[in-house]
Predict the structure.
Amino acid sequence: MILLLFLCYYIIMKRIREIRIGKICLGGDHPVAVQTMWDKAIDVIDETLIASINKLETFGCQLIRFAAPTLDSVTILGEIAERINMPLVADIHFDYKIALECMNYNIPKIRINPGNIGAPWKVEEVIKKAKDTNTVIRIGANGGSLPKDLKKMKNRAEAIVKAAEDQLEFLEKLNFHNIVVSLKSSDIEENYFTNEAFYSRHDYPLHLGITEAGPLIPSIVKSSIGLSRLLEKGIGNTIRISISDDPLKEVIAANEILSALKLNSTKRVDLISCPKCARSSFDTHTFTQEIQDYLYSVDKDISVAIMGCMVNGPGESSHADIGISGVGNTIAIFKKGEIIRRETACSAKEAFIEEIEKL
């Protein structure tokens, strides 16, 4: 019993080693970092591209990953890395020379699969240069791409852990420890037990995610259920919510999950809004769509209510720092349930933003 209590205490209080990636740190006492992956091939770098990447950061992204399929793509990623504030991660498969080239640029982290990067000496070359450049290496395993020998194991969670540990052992023999580990599955239970098992044995920062989670709604449901149990135990140091949609939605979803768990490192707006019903005379759907980009970019720890009628407006959302509702063309803005301003439908959005800025 004493041993069991000790192990439970160790898991709860365990300290993860600290890894620095550009301007952010994972592990130690640092909060969970949000990341996403760019979803398009890039041929030309223009201001529109840079603005789009910077918008991700405004919405709470802290790391951005790009595929690096060719040597030519590395030059482009190197230029992007110099023009954005977020640390850039390069995703590399099959060609070790791409990994080596990435380390000639301001790219502080690369993702490789030692199993497909080539012969052991090629991996050794990559690790040798990573030591010299202080580059972080992400390794890991995916439930859908296990080595043939591990696919025969009955316990797939243990198979995923074993695949990652084989990679880890190779890097540790080279005296390399600047590592982030990712263990992912599309099955939320398998994903949970895999990460819990690895966490109980090692102190490397973990990259969490449910892989191939699908379109917006299925992905958010799976990710919320699958990752929250790990995060509540202190397992996980960076997350990506994999959605078959705009990367911006991945960032928003990740921050919403972290905010709900009180784990967010930045101030975020808690948005409260009601669905429409027959008594709704204020179009909450349209108003929320029009203002949500602004709200997601607000660096304030506040609750904002967008309510459909005066029945569930100031009354039911009286706990909100600020809210808005209306009847017909008369729109009311309220703070803690008390109406402070009345506007028309045309002037409501501008007035609402003005009052939020005052908070």
About this structure: The domain at 270-358 is CATH 3.30.413.10 (Sulfite Reductase Hemoprotein; domain 1). The radius of gyration is 23 Å. The mean pLDDT is 88. The longest strand covers residues 136-142.
